[in-house]
Amino acid sequence: MTRPPTRHPAGRAPLARSGAALAVVLLLAAGCADPRGGSLGPAPTAASPVATAPTGPTPPPTPAGTGPPPAPPATSTAPPSTGATPRPQNLTIELWYVRDGRITPTRRTRPATPATSRLALTELAAGPTTAEAATGMTTLLPAGVEVTRIADGVATLPPLPAASATSRRLREAQVVYTLTQFPTVRRVRFGTGDPVNRADYADLLPPIVVTSPVVGQRVTSPVTVTGTADVFEATVNVRILDAAGRELATTFTTATCGTGCRGDYRVGVRYRLTREQRGTVEVYEVSPADGSRTKLVAVPVTLAATGR
């Protein structure tokens, strides 16, 4: 007796075969992926600006039945959302250069790319801008250095070109501090050595690090000044100077740790200025011995006018 052909629900067999084929394609693609994993994830300084509604006083509620009739619901003509988060067009990364035998940060905003590790190291090797170089910044990292693998939070690079012991550690510190800003990198391995992290190069930080503002930035009042410091009694002093070097404002704050340990600090400084001009943000320690400004970091900026 001839068995009747098995009938599938409409569309079931073709869809099953299509799903199996798609799974095979995805598995093959994963097996052929680049093991270097060039994407390090979003940089912490790369947050996209968010538009906010203007703020103002909240109007009192209208008693029931006394207000105008409610408006009909708006009809949206926008295409339906796909649920996917739009990729930012630009990426802001923190770069660590060398100044006076220590490492110091600045920032760059560049078109977004999946190969964030390559972008970061390329910008690091390219060196400082003219304005940054004028403050003494330089780079010791040669061109062509790339991450070869990222796995389990460790970014692996080939050994850096030969240099003196001091230059080698500064080069490595530049790379380690730049790459570990990304959430997917906690440590860095050079060649076959043991992985290292920021703590291994903490001695190459100056007493006061200013992470914001950066050289050449246009700032508005109040200026938010942030960074880390290891200073006497954790006291961090800030002042703003105009183009002629006149003091416009001064304040101080305390870091989360100090006098033998490094802590974070953040403070806002208000100033008044009738016209936009170049200026300087100074961050320093007041000497407990004679009251002079010591461990000073000067950041040239553009000061926006505030009006009268």
TrEMBL record:
Keyword Signal: yes
Region (Disordered): 33-90
Biased composition (Low complexity): 41-55, 74-86
Entry keywords, A to Z: Signal
Biased composition, class Pro residues, residue ranges: 56-73
Residue ranges occupied by any GerMN domain in the UniProt entry: 117-200
PROSITE patterns referenced in this protein's UniProt entry, alphabetically: PROKAR_LIPOPROTEIN (PS51257)
InterPro entries: GerMN (IPR019606), Gmad2_Ig-like_dom (IPR018911)
Alphabetized Pfam families for the sequence: Germane, Gmad2
Stretch forming the signal peptide: 1-23
The protein's name: Sporulation and spore germination
Organism of derivation: Micromonospora echinaurantiaca
